[in-house]
Structure formats: structure tokens, C-alpha cells
Design brief:
This protein is α+β, with helices and mostly antiparallel strands and 312 residues long. It has two domains: 168 residues, no CATH class; 119 residues, Butyryl-CoA Dehydrogenase, subunit A, domain 2. The protein contains eight helices and ten strands. A four-stranded mixed beta sheet has the order 1-4-5-8. The longest helix has 29 residues. The radius of gyration is 21 Å and the shape is elongated. The relative contact order is 0.14.
């Protein structure tokens, strides 16, 4: 992170987002994922600079990272923090960079929380080989496409409204065989599964989406036919750079609670923090948080400065 005013602006944004998130969490206690999601987003936590501060000087990516950190610092469950980071950095930022001025219209009302996106790439048996996918989009006489296939292990699939779907538009194994589409999941022929059982990040549902001959207009394609692998590379670069921002807030919250506990908990007539072993563990936690924050915020700063995501 940059020293001086930028650090203060980041801290102001973290604190502001944490305050908004605490209010939203109190109102949505015990609610389902979509209710908690909408409660957070509707509070304006995304891209909301702290009032009466210089946080508005932060670049949009850095401000978004600070917002995600603040949401976690407020005590938001890790799964919901993960969903926020995945949505923001794995889908919205890269798509808006590709779609330009038309982006907000095509993505829908994500700013209010009414529209939730998901990234539908993975297929059972496909592993990390996107060119092995079997989901296909067949060109029709009217210029539209017929989408058929199943995507699995998709974050938020059971409750999402719009999916970024990667599908085969050419039969051969080629870098230009894939295309990307924004699919309204309320369309006829779309089947969203029930949530899969998970052992981690359980607060955000994961599932599959099956497309039974779903008709797509030509305007649903993102970019040109055959440009899907390029878009996938872009979304992956964004996600790999910033997805772990979801962990900063929970890490910080745990560290704060540990420091407080070490200072107040008495054992054998002295504070736990007086133990060199305990103090060393706390120091290790602080160093891990410091290194993680530096890495993520430096990535964000480079993106705000105009560096291409693939060059990070």
C-alpha cells in the first residue's frame, strides 16, 4: 500500500463499510443467503467512500477491496465475504471492462442487490481443461443460439439471476472454439439445482445449472464468437489477483479478538500475552495479515493505475 493519505483513505473506507455491514447483519440475522446479500448491497457497501474523508480519491478497485475487507471485519461470515469478492472481481470488473458503457445495462441491477450473477464454466470431468467442455451453443438461422449442457460446482448457482456461461461454438479443439454468453436464468429451459453439500464457505450455496435447449438472442453473446477463451483468461486474471481479499476482514477480526483476549485473560497470575509463546503466535498472525494486505492492495493499485490484469 502507498504510505500517507492513501493508507488513511483505505482505513476510512474499511471502517465505513464495516459500519454499514454491521447494520445490515443485525437486520438480517438468521436470514437466507439472498436476504443477507441484498441487505448488504442495498446498504450501499459497494463503492461507498466514507463521508467527509478522502476515500473518494481511491481508485475503484482499491476502494472495492477495502469495502470487501470492511464487510469481513464487521463479522460477516466467510462464505458471504467470498461471494462478494467473487462477484466483484471475478465477474463484474472484468465484464464491465469488456462491455464498456453498455455494461450496467447488460448486467442488470447489481448495484441494489436485485440481480445476482454467477460464473458458469466448470463441468463434471472437465477439471481445469476448458477446451474439453461439452456445453454447446449452436448458431440458429435467426442469428441466435441454442444452448445445451450442464455446468457444475458454480458458486451461487441455485439462487443466481444471470449467469456468465462459456460454451462451445465450434467442434474442434481450438482456442477460438469457445464463446461467452450472459444468460437470464429465468429463461425457459434453464434448470438450477438444489445447493450441493459443502464443508467450507457454507454460507454461499453452490450447485449446477442445466440448459435444455435454451434460446439466446445474438445480443446475449459477450464479445465476438470465438472470443470465450480470451474472456475466461481475463476473468481468471482478475479473480486470481483479488479473490483472496475476502479473507482480509475475517483475518483482521480474528487478530483483533486474539490481541484483546491476550491482554485480558489471566493465567497463573499473569496476562496470556506476557507468555513469549503466545506473543510469538500473535506476532505470526499479525505478519500474515500484513503480508496478505500488502499483496492484495498492491495488486489493486496496479489495476487502478491501468496495468493489464494478465500482466500482474
Amino acid at each position: 500500500m502507498t504510505p500517507g493519505s492513501t493508507r488513511k483513505d483505505i482505513e476510512d473506507t474499511v471502517a465505513h463499510a464495516a459500519g454499514l455491514a454491521e447494520s445490515a447483519l443485525a437486520d438480517a440475522e438468521g436470514a437466507d443467503f439472498r436476504t443477507r446479500w441484498k441487505g448488504l448491497v442495498a446498504r450501499g457497501v459497494w463503492d461507498a467512500p466514507a463521508p467527509d474523508s478522502g476515500a473518494g480519491r481511491l481508485g475503484p478497485v482499491t476502494r472495492a477491496v477495502a469495502t470487501v475487507e470492511g464487510i469481513g471485519k464487521a463479522g460477516t461470515a466467510a462464505g458471504l465475504c467470498y461471494a462478494m469478492a467473487s462477484q466483484r472481481f471475478g465477474i463484474q470488473f472484468p465484464l464491465l471492462s469488456v462491455l464498456g458503457e453498455d455494461g450496467p445495462r447488460r448486467l442488470g441491477d447489481t448495484a441494489s442487490g436485485d440481480v445476482l450473477l454467477c460464473h458458469a464454466l466448470t463441468e463434471e470431468g472437465g477439471g481445469s481443461d476448458p477446451l474439453s467442455m461439452s456445453t454447446r451453443a449452436e448458431l440458429q438461422e435467426d442469428g441466435g443460439y441454442l444452448l445445451t449442457g450442464t455446468k457444475s460446482f458454480v458458486t451461487a448457482a441455485p439462487v443466481a439471476d444471470v449467469a456468465l456461461v462459456f460454451a462451445r461454438t465450434a467442434a474442434e479443439r481450438s482456442p477460438f472454439a469457445l464463446s461467452a454468453f450472459l444468460v437470464d436464468l429465468r429463461s425457459p429451459g434453464v434448470e438450477q439445482s438444489a445447493p450441493f453439500p459443502k464443508t467450507a464457505l457454507t454460507e454461499v450455496p453452490m450447485g449446477s445449472i442445466t440448459f435444455h435447449g435454451v434460446r439466446l438472442g445474438p445480443d446475449r453473446m459477450v464479445g465476438e464468437e470465438g472470443a470465450g477463451l480470451g474472456l475466461l483468461t481475463l476473468t481468471t486474471a482478475w479473480e486470481r489477483a483479488l479473490l483472496l481479499s475476502y479473507a482480509l476482514g475475517p483475518m483482521r477480526r480474528v487478530l483483533d479478538r486474539t490481541v484483546e483476549w491476550s491482554a485480558t485473560r489471566q493465567h497463573f497470575g499473569r496476562r496470556m500475552g506476557a507468555s513469549h509463546i503466545v506473543a510469538a503466535r500473535v506476532a505470526d498472525m499479525a505478519l500474515a495479515l500484513y503480508r496478505s494486505r500488502e499483496l492484495v492492495y498492491r495488486m489493486a493499485a496496479r489495476l487502478d493505475a491501468g496495468e493489464r490484469p494478465r500482466q500482474l
